[in-house]
Amino acid sequence: MKPLFTAAALLALAACGPKAAQQAKPAAAPIACAGLPAYAPVYPGAKVTLCTQGDSTPGKIGGAVGFTSPDAPDTIVALYKDGAAAAGLRPGLDLDQGGSKVFSAQDGDRTVRIQALPEANGGSTAILTWGAAKPG
């Protein structure tokens, strides 16, 4: 579906004139996402679609990572549940809403939340959010 959508978008831009078509970028470079806490890593083999991080409140940092994966929501959430338990975070939310999974855990300033939604053609789209005390 995405290649068809991309082609349609490029054709629509071309109809707007040569300058608009030249500015269109059909393929984006992979998004790097470094500096995440050990309890909230980028999911293995994921295609990162969003990565943002920075100061959230005085003395705290946080971020969000959006990604897609060929894995099912259950598999994705299981990795973050195991990571949270290994890091000593206490479980919070643990929901299954029609195949969409949500899990959260925290310990003091350390927080993690994963939401994974099934895609119609298989795989998942997910968003991971995290927080921590600011180092230093």
Describe the overall structure.
There is one protein chain. With 136 residues, the chain is an alpha+beta fold. Strands 1-2-6-5-4-3 form a 6-stranded antiparallel β-sheet, covered by helices on one side. A hairpin with a 5-residue loop joins strand 5 and strand 6. 22% of the residues are buried. The N terminus is likely disordered.
Describe the structure in brief.
The protein has three helices and six strands; from the N terminus they run H-H-E-E-H-E-E-E-E.
Blueprint (SSEs and pairs):
Layout: H1 2-16, H2 18-23, E1 47-57, E2 60-69, H3 73-86, E3 90-97, E4 100-107, E5 110-118, E6 124-133
Antiparallel strand pairs: 1-2, 2-6, 3-4, 4-5, 5-6
Q: State the separation between the terminal residues, measured CA to CA.
A: 46 Å
Summarize model confidence as the mean pLDDT.
82
Number of helical segments?
Answer: 3
Structural class by secondary-structure content: alpha+beta
Strand order, main sheet: write it out.
1-2-6-5-4-3
Radius of gyration: 18 Å
Uncertain regions spanning at least 5 consecutive residues: 1-27
Strand % is 35-45%
- The total of beta strands comes to 6
Specify the oligomeric state. Answer: single chain
Q: Give the fraction of residues assigned to helices.
A: 25-40%
Question: What attributes characterize this protein structure?
Answer:
136 residues, alpha+beta, single chain, 6 strands, 26% helix
